[in-house]
Design goal:
One of its GO terms (molecular function) is Kdo transferase activity. Pfam families: Glycos_transf_1 (PF00534), Glycos_transf_N (PF04413). It comes from Ramlibacter aurantiacus. InterPro entries: Glyco_trans_1 (IPR001296), Glycos_transf_N (IPR007507), Glycos_transf_N_sf (IPR038107), Kdotransferase (IPR039901). With about 425 residues, the protein is an alpha/beta fold. Helix content is about 45%, strand content about 15%. It folds into two domains: about 1-205 and about 415-430, 3-Deoxy-D-manno-octulosonic-acid transferase, N-terminal domain (Rossmann fold, 3-Layer(aba) Sandwich); about 215-415, Rossmann fold (3-Layer(aba) Sandwich), CATH 3.40.50.2000. It contains 18 helices and 14 strands. The strands form two sheets. A seven-stranded parallel sheet has the order 3-2-1-4-5-6-7, with helices on both faces. The chain is globular and about 70 Å long.
Length: about 425
């Protein structure tokens, strides 16, 4: 009964989805691309037998790239089908395509759309990345004999409570999966409570990402000797930038009144550069406007020619350049962790050797955050104001900062190997080993 009701709601919501796509498409044209695929209508022909990899958004698509590389190393002839849910995910996914591969939107989770998707592409096996499990999709794959796995799987306590509230719907979906490969033992236990049959704990695929060496080199080149240190707000979220700017305004005012005398009392335009890199590209303009409205001069990455231009605030308004930004920075504040949003991925910062200061909310990457802290690669604070103080203290203590940078690289290196394990398990599931 609950499943039938869910399917009726999903079908009835399709006009709302179309309106939402049109609205988002005004700011992100990628949402207007191949709209009918969202409803299970695909053009052309598709060669059956590909391994299907679903990566809903930008972060998951980058993880898909790590998995795809491992699959191709083990099986050079493998063909892949990439599906996505967001415009940034799909744009990133085009970079992963090789001869014989395909790309499409994953359809809205109605029985008819899901059936058309599976009939059109006829994948050999499928894998969902991290968290996204759709009831009709999971059960349709089980009926058709398409083994569907959840890889790099994680489930926070908050998400588990949500799944348990909807257990009549979520438990059958989890139970329909052919395999679940968890990131950590804690994730595995929560997934079991949600109804999944966990096949193994394979680690976090993100540790196997190699920072782009050209970006690391470029970032280092843009940091000449004696240049001011840089504090980066990495993957910041709504509300966090405004709070940081408020704190910087207050610090600037104290300096102007002569109240700030300690070595760590820096201000924009002084001995420190502030780099804001918003998590979502549709907010680049908004964050730049916030900084300007707060009275700071602003320089955006998209306007740089020979390197960063002098300004109080730098805005990292580009995609796929996080390694460059980390190489440019001395310390990173972890976005999403200063509001109850769960935090962003700190593994990339560690791989680039950038010390991290994180807030109290890291439930999306709980074990990675705790382990990084234990390795000395990151420090945890209770508020953004305290994070600012701690970052500035690190700038005033180069030896401590260097120790954290070394610890970060060692932490990232020590946890590699999940991509090989996951790729091998997926090929076995697909009958290609």
């Amino acid at each position: 009964m609950i499943h039938t009701l869910y399917s009726l709601v999903m079908a009835g919501a399709q006009p709302l989805l179309r309106r939402k796509l049109r609205r988002r498409g005004r700011h992100e044209p990628g949402y207007l691309e191949a709209v009918e695929e969202r409803f299970g209508h695909y053009t052309g022909t598709a060669e059956p037998g590909a391994i299907w990899v679903h990566a809903v958004s930008l972060g998951e698509t980058r993880v898909a790239g790590i998995l795809a590389a491992a699959l191709r190393r083990l099986d050079p002839g493998v063909r892949l089908l990439f599906t996505h849910g967001t415009a940034t995910g799909r744009a990133e996914g085009t970079r992963l395509l090789r001869e014989g591969d395909a790309q499409a939107w994953l359809p809205w989770d109605t029985p008819a759309a899901v059936e058309r998707f599976l009939e059109h592409f006829r994948p050999r096996a499928g894998v969902l990345l991290e968290t996204e499990v759709w009831p009709n999709l999971a059960q349709a794959c089980a009926r058709r004999g398409v083994p569907l796995a959840l890889a790099n799987a994680r489930l926070s306590e908050k998400s588990l409570r949500g799944a348990q509230r909807l257990s009549l719907l979520s438990r059958p979906a989890y139970a329909s999966l052919a395999a679940v490969w968890a990131q950590t033992e804690a994730d595995a236990e929560r997934l079991r409570q949600a109804g999944a049959r966990v096949s193994g704990v394979l680690g976090n695929l993100k540790f196997d990402a190699d920072p782009d060496p050209a970006q690391l080199q470029q970032g280092a080149a843009w940091r000449p000797p004696q240049s001011p240190p840089v504090v980066m707000f990495a993957s910041s979220r709504e509300g966090e930038e405004a709070e940081l700017l408020r704190l910087l305004q207050a610090r600037r005012d104290r300096l102007a009144s002569g109240q700030a005398r300690r070595a760590t009392d820096f201000a924009p335009g002084g001995p420190v550069r502030w780099l804001l890199v918003p998590r979502h590209p549709q907010r680049f303009d908004e964050v730049a406007q916030l900084a300007a409205a707060a009275g700071f001069t602003v320089s955006r990455r998209s306007q740089w020619q020979a390197g960063p231009e002098p300004a109080d605030i730098w805005i990292g308004d580009s995609l796929g350049e996080m390694a460059l930004y980390y190489a440019l920075s001395d310390v990173a504040l972890l976005g999403g962790s200063f509001e109850p949003l769960g935090g962003q991925n700190l593994i990339e910062a560690a791989a680039c050797g950038c010390p991290v200061v994180m807030g109290p909310h890291t439930f999306n990457f709980a074990e990675a955050a705790v382990t990084a802290e234990g390795h000395g690669a990151a420090v945890r604070v209770d508020s953004l104001a305290e994070a600012l103080r701690r970052a500035l203290e690190l700038l005033a203590d180069p030896s401590r900062r260097d120790e954290m940078a070394d610890a970060a690289r060692q932490f990232a290196q020590a946890h590699r190997g999940a991509a090989q394990r996951c790729a091998r398990a997926l090929l076995e599931l697909a009958g290609r080993e």
